[in-house]
Amino acid sequence: MKKLLLFVLGIMVVCIGCNEEKEEDIYLEQEVDEPLYWAFASKDSVHQYGIVEDYKTGSTFLCKENKKDGSDIWKMPLTQPDPLMINLGYGKIEPFEYQVFSIIDTDNNILVYWNIKFKNYASINTKGIPIYQTYVSKCTLSGEFIECIPIGIQNVALGDIREGNGRLVGMNNECFLVIQGGLDKEEYEWGISCCYYITVDINTNTILEIYKEEANAENKELYFPLNSFNSIIQFVNNHIVFIYEGGNIQRVCDWNKKKQILDIESFVNQKYPNEEHAPQYSTSHEVITETYADFTLRVIFYSGEKIEHRLRFNYETQEIIELML
Fold it and tell me: pTM of whole model > 0.85?
């Protein structure tokens, strides 16, 4: 009887050990291939890109998948920039890891924008966040890593980027635009005081232009959205830029003149100035060319009444004419 009891206990120990090992393997298997960042839509809107980290090895991968069902197309190793080391004083140095803030593709390359998401403000000394480089990883369309391009602004400390403040925008196949929030002051403050628009040549990795815009100025003309999850910035040609929010056209800008040439909200308010409650609106059925854009503007009044306008906007003359529905 005693031998039988020992035999049963032995089997129970082995089973418990196997179950624990099995649970641990399942846990590790789930973590090995877990996406760390939001998916970023491709230019064709059929696919999306994301970043995956292998928890066992610490390796980072760029992956492409079908947007409709999330099935993988490929997964390729991606070199991550070394962490920014911040001296906290008293012999303490804290590493701040680079994270992916934006991924875009052109006809020839996939570009990955790296920035730092500061998480522990109290640990940063009174000198504030130091000047540092951001980076753009350049890859082939099949995901093969080519190089990491440093993108920096001398003598400028970047601002509060806790919410994904900073993004990439494809201008054409030769250039891309990096948008970064910044601070003009030495001490760290909440928010940003300016935006920097950095035009970079894809082939030579050289900075062609740095344009600065005061973020708090009342007469700001561009102010492209810094968060890439809620908005789309689309260059129609080398200088006309459409900005979408929630799938609707919000503004049109002339990049060469660094000014806004159409604001849909202002247009609606000027067209219906006597409304006590500002009308709501949406846009659809866009036909965008290099010289003009046709789109349907749907206006909804506080009373529930709805009106549709078919409009054509000329970039050069900035004239809006009404078309037949």
Answer: no
